[in-house]
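It is worth pausing here to work through a concrete case rather than discussing structure prediction in the abstract. The textbook approach is simple: state the sequence, then state the predicted structure, then interpret. We follow exactly that order.
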Amino acid sequence: MTEESTTGEKEFKVSGGELLGRFRDLVHQGNVRHIIIQNEKGRTLLEVPLTLGVVGVALIPAYAAVAAIAALVAKCNIIVLNTEDE
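Step two, the predicted structure:
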């Protein structure tokens, strides 16, 4: 029996005020490997690759960037790439 992993992609539409909270929730899920934040027009504002070894201190710059983006945009999209083991 072999283990295969597939990559799933989810997209969330959030307001600027919800962005940081949603970002934190996604990071704490554990199975997320990449988060992309885009504006309403689809332009990428931030890409954050996540690995299994990433801890809270390493994410402080990412949290600061997400907070700055949240202050500047009214609405944005969060695209989440995660790995699901089957």
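Step three, interpretation. The radius of gyration is 13 Å. Residues 5-85 form one domain.
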